[in-house]
Amino acid sequence: MMFDESEIADEANTALLSPRDSLSVKGHEANEQLLLDAWNSGKLHHAWLFTGPKGIGKASLGYQFARFILAGGGEGGGLFGDQPNSLKVSAEHPVYRRMTSGGHSDFQILEKGMMNPDTKRVAENDIPVAIARKAIEFIRLTPAESDWRVILVDAADDLNRNAANALLKVLEEPPARAIFILISHAPGRLLPTIKSRCRKLTFKSIPDESVSELLLSQYPELGNDDAHALARLSEGSVGKAMELQENGGLDLFKMVVSLLSHPQDLSLTKLHSLADTLSRKDAKENYIVFRNLIDWWFKRLLKILAGDHMPKPIFAEEYMAIEACKALMPLGKWLEAADLVNERLWQTEAPSNLDRRQVVIDAFLTLETLAQGR
User: Fold this and answer.
1) Which of 110, 171, 203, 322 is geometrically suited to a Cys-Cys bond with 52, CB 3.0 to 4.6 A?
2) Nearest partner of 151 among 137, 165, 169, 130, judged by Cα
């Protein structure tokens, strides 16, 4: 699917907005039509599960659908004004303004980073049961401003076990006029009983060519080669591509590939340069991007070693790194190496809270030791 220039500009501007603020979502028209058909049928299912890779527009469409419901069917009336033909709710609509300001009394978001009412602390790592219970209390109330109450869970993968079980109970016996929209990047982690209570919509990745065009429209300083590399690296996720661009992801990936081209004989100069870059006080987000890239690349390598087809390299040097790693150790050893490196890189988090610089150096030296067969 290709966009014309106006669509590319609109999509790029939308991608800069948070899902809460986005007015439209390109590339998922079939799913939008399914939601419209469900609304127009008069038999709207009470729970929806949006699945697919992170950053491709699931949450944006979730917010759009929530606004549409709370606006009583949006603003997109049919030819005679009888049925809506779009989920669109304009930025001037009171529902849009109240939702973006977080003040709509019939809408609630459920996500990490909210205040846990039991501990009075921000829940950074998951969605605990206390927050889920508050949301359930909310959904059982009578709608105040509209005909519905809506809960959006972004992402349902972050619910801890107790929170998931609490949500399951209300999904099994939902109140009248209650709608649940669950976003999931990894539906395999969800309770099967939660999935069975939801109508599932699958979101597909956007083609690489479209992602690179969107990047070039938003970042004109990017060259074509870098835009195409970011598109392949993001695997069809505009959100991920922009996150990589904003946090130096491509340069970090190039540094990693350069090191992995000779894992048994690491360049200490390059390793220390990478560690210094990631240890700066303002580099926490860069470090998270780096850690995710390492995990992604090891999974990519392991699939190749297990007999999967060779994917198109991000750039030519990556092919050299893959070939070097294939020749160095068998699949079993690389499984061990991937586990050890990823384990080391997470030691910057609680309870270890180790220095990022030392963790990066230690992780790669651990890999070098394995590669040397010691």
Assistant:
1) 203
2) 137
Q: Environment class of residue 113 by beta-carbon count within 10 Å: exposed (0-12), middle (13-18) or buried (19+)?
A: exposed
Per-residue model confidence as pLDDT tens digits over 103-162: 899 999 999 999 999 999 999 899 999 999 999 999 999 999 999 999 999 999 999 999
Could you please state the CATH topology (level 3) that the domain comprising 5-202 is classified under: Rossmann fold (3.40.50)
- The domain spans of the chain are 5-202, 247-371
Among 279, 244, 20, which Cα is nearest to 152's?
20
- Say what the pTM is: 0.74
CATH architecture observed for domain 247-371: Up-down Bundle (1.20)
Do residues 55 and 15 make contact, with C-beta atoms less than 8 angstroms apart? no
Kind of pairing, strands 178-184 and 149-154? parallel
* Residue pointed to by tokens 């390109």: 26
Alpha helices in the chain (DSSP H): 5-16, 29-40, 58-70, 94-100, 129-139, 161-172, 192-196, 208-218, 224-234, 238-246, 249-260, 268-278, 284-305, 316-328, 331-345, 356-371
CA angle, residues 218, 219, 220, in degrees to nearest 5:
105
CA-CA-CA-CA dihedral for 124, 166, 201, 153, to nearest 10: -30
